[in-house]
Design a protein that fits this description.
Length: 303
């Protein structure tokens, strides 16, 4: 059970947006380059996932008190994993991708190094970017959106940069910014109680929803200007749950507004790469079984 505890403590379901962003960005890149999914893409995805696992471990260590206040009673609070063990896990999962990255390219090493640096700056004092409204927003959007989309081209150079589809990283930067803003709203009371100044704390519910709507609107323009028609439809559809959350003033509507675009993007990635969809379904079932047996709770939920 201990190995499973460490696996699920890496929050694999929170990796779905990362994997989906990578695969959708890769699809549009492959349309330009004529390439297809290969072992290089799989290794890069695995490296990104390991680095984000490390970020998840660090986050739980440094967010112990606010997670307790927000009733996010997890592995540390239940005593399944100790804080020293969680910190050791951060080191263990971070070393392999940093060792492998130079074998691909200096660009990959540079991207991975940013992931690792942001993982520390995001959660650890005195920086704690996650507790700051603008820096927390930027760190999330840059790492989960822009850098993940950039990683689809480990061999990027001045000669082939046009094949990346430069607007794709910008699109995902904006959509991740919207989702991040939404996720800070339900946690605003616990965050305020522990001295955090997230977007949700600073702006409050109404203005945070408005900011998220602006980010989604900008993503519609970027996708339309770039000719990414499926992404235009995805962003347009994502506006409706935000508008609903503005009218129905309960946190479950905000949670749905945050999760709906992730679900839609996952379906899009599964459409482009069917084996990925099979993997996601298996992971969802695995999480349901694990959390029911280990925590006696139903997870994941859509809202």
């Amino acid at each position: 059970m201990r190995i499973l505890d460490f696996f699920f403590a890496s929050r694999p379901l929170l990796h779905l947006p990362i994997w989906s962003v990578y695969l959708v960005a890769l699809h549009f890149h492959d349309e330009l380059s004529g390439e297809g999914f290969g072992w290089t893409d799989l290794v890069v995805m695995a490296g990104i996932s390991l680095l984000f696992s490390g970020a998840a471990y660090l986050n739980q260590v440094f967010d112990f008190e606010s997670d307790r206040i927000n009733n996010k009673l997890g592995f540390l609070q239940q005593g399944f994993i100790s804080q020293p063990q969680m910190l050791a896990a951060f080191v263990v999962v971070s070393l392999p991708p940093m060792a492998v990255a130079p074998l691909f390219s200096m660009a990959t090493l540079f991207i991975f190094a940013q992931f690792l640096l942001l993982a520390y700056l995001y959660s650890a004092p005195p920086f704690r970017l996650k507790d700051r409204p603008i820096l927390g927003l930027f760190a999330n959007s840059w790492a989960h959106g822009f850098l993940v989309a950039m990683a689809v081209m480990p061999d990027i150079s001045i000669h082939n940069a046009g094949l990346l589809g430069w607007d794709s990283p910008l699109y995902f930067f904006l959509t991740v910014a919207a989702v991040h803003t939404l996720t800070t709203i339900p946690d605003r009371e616990g965050d305020r109680a522990t001295g955090k100044t997230t977007i949700g704390v600073v702006l409050g519910r109404g203005w945070s929803l408005a900011v998220a709507l602006v980010f989604v609107g900008l993503s519609v323009w970027v996708a339309w200007y770039s000719g990414f028609a499926p992404l235009v439809y995805l962003s347009l559809a994502s506006m409706f749950p935000i508008l609903a959350a503005m009218i129905i003033r309960i946190d479950s509507t905000v949670l749905f507004a945050a999760k709906a675009p992730i679900l839609a993007l996952t379906f899009m990635a599964g459409y482009f790469f069917p084996l990925y969809f099979v993997f996601v379904v298996a992971l969802l079932f695995g999480c349901r079984i694990y959390y029911l047996k280990r925590f006696n709770m139903i997870y994941p939920k859509l809202a």
